[in-house]
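Final paragraph of the annual report: two paired records, presented back to back.
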Amino acid sequence: MQEVFSGSFTQQEPIPEAGIAAAIDVMRHGRLHRYNTAPGETAQTVLLEQEFAQSVGARYCLAVASGGYALATALRALGVTGGDTVLTNVFTLAPVPGAIAAVGAVPVFVGVTDELVLDFDDLEAKAQQARVLLLSHMRGHICDMNRLTEICEKHGITIIEDCAHTMGAAWDEKPSGRWGKVGCFSCQTYKHMNSGEGGLLVTDDPEVAARAILYSGSYMLYEQHLAGPPKEAFDDLIYETPNISGRMDNLRAAILRPQLATLAKQCARWNVRYAALEAGLRDVPGLKVIERSEKEHFVGSSFQFLLPGWSAEKISQAVECCARRGVALKWFGASDPSGYTSRYDSWAYAAPDPLPASDRVLAGLVDLRVPLTITPSEFSVIARIIREEVGRLYQTET
């Protein structure tokens, strides 16, 4: 009898009791707006910003409405405007080129390697086309950040890090989000801290931080940002920076603060599950596991593998066969967008040039979520199901 998995790949763990209690307290007093505080009170949003800045070693932090808003705000704060070009990964999710388009700029896509990280040769070839790289640590894969910073410094390129999938991760012991000028994080439901929606932006640059705070809709209340720069950083900016409101509220901050306190523990739990999948899918004929660098301290909240050289029809069959046995796989090589997966050539607003080498990688790229509500032993079952279905179809493919 075939094994079947009956769990859910979209069910999250409950909010910690401390977060529930803090959220109820905010709802009882009704001061959800970050600037609405009682005498002597420090807003939950301010406390979250201070604690998150400390956790990653940043001078400044801003809590905002979403990770996508953080990306667009970072671009604006660096002076990116209509008609500019911005380099970014070809392997990413739609909100990344969407943030570039939101400020009127044009994405220039940089290729992806078989390890699912930025192709440095392609980056070097395109380095003169833009002054900003919006680097997506897509699905938690971190490229060689030492080498990347060398290339970008050589060409005068400023890095914004999209850390939606790498909160709690690091390269060479330096936290994700601290390699570039700005680091942007997401607190959407499927990320490493869950407030439904929400984002965080970190930087050491006082002007960038001041611009971001003003863009987020601080009015003249920016001095309440205790994780922000000093008042003088705002003096020349307050009359020229538009208010594009995107603040985080105290309710979401109250939910997030206890999750930040246990983030390291949660990351370790994700990696145990990732390891169970990796062990179960090694040495499967026709399936390639993505190898990780020893310098990459990643968070395994999702898992990717390649089916190199497979036809589109066979990959589609593999996804369908696994789905019949309860395993929800996503295919980044599908011709049409589906769920959260889409390819760069479906983002017509970006008018992308073809990238044949990257197309070959994306054509066989399969993804699945690794929620903490599924146990490591259940992930071993999931790996066996994938192994059996991929192995059976590979035999017919060859």
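The closing record of the year follows.
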Amino acid sequence: MDPAEADVSSQFLLTLGIILLVGLMFSSVAQRSFLPRATLLLIFGAVIGEDVFDLIPDLFTQRFELIADITLLMVGFLLGGKLTARSLRDHSVKSFAISFSAAVIPASVVCLGMIAMGVAIEIAVLLGCFAAATAPAAIFDVVEESGIKNRFSELLLLIVVLDDVWALLLFGVGMAIVTSLNGSVDEIGLVSLVAYELGGAALLGAAIGLPAAYLTGRVKPGKPVLLEALGIVFLCGGVAIWLNVSYLIAAIVMGAVIANLARHHDYPFHAIEGIESLFMVVFFVLAGASLEFDALAVIGSIGMIYILCRATGKYLGAWIGASLSRAGASNQRWMGVALLPQAGVAIGMALVASNRFPEYRQVMLPIVIASTVIFEIIGPVFTRVAIQRSPDGQP
């Protein structure tokens, strides 16, 4: 082997080994402390990242987007598996009411808060849309790592699935409003684009999920093998990205279809859960390494108000949704706290908006990036506290 290639291979394997062993260690530490694994891994990634000790090889950081895509695909697939007929029958009114309110209320509170701070209405509208999104990977990891399986955690995962759908819909409407305020005339085209991205994703997830529900689990009756699980997840993600539709929504729909139709499976998602943890650990470490702490120094009072308004809006929105749907006092008190994490979806929307409206980039991006640093590190802590303080999700 060429010495240069050997050096790259050595760095890759050494780094991967250290990350996985640290992930194992932090999983143990998380069980004995108030900090969830996601937060510990993010902090570790930030420490060994470029802004501090710069110990992660470029080979990893340059592939972060690919690792993030794979991780979110798996998370979407597993979250979709929670959308079974039984869970929707038990929680349909609650999950739809809380998720809708927990998306619309923070968007409204942030928008009004930004306008009160003197921010241009166009930027305020876009920041409100970003505030609606949550971090499905972080919340899912906290729920799984906590080991608490109850009605509260079950409802939380359903809400996370729907919350980002509402956020993407709000983003499409917000983009159309800003386009209209700027005097353009193609807002209908923007709404159509969002409809294509979400509707196309749903159709793709169903198109792959339907045959997969009946064809998988036949090699070993009742138990789909890992190759099958990874194959359909990667196929779904690859086609979704190729068609420019939301791969997260496609994976969620595919998971829901398989969970509800694959009657011959003992448990359709068992195989992929065996490897999902590996990608989750690498994902959080690299996410921590990619956090831009410099943005914290430039957000100023507007950024702090954004963070305060989003946190207030999430809590208030979940409280209102839980009250209207009669979800119980525990859900009113703790669901909004559990929904604080925010990460890739919000940044993705901010990048799209910045490309569409470059004149707003200098204000939007620092606020979204800085708030993501805060919400992604402390958000999982609040999620874990909420799960532990509301052990049964009932009053």
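The radius of gyration is 21 Å. This concludes the annual technical report; the extension proposal builds directly on these records.
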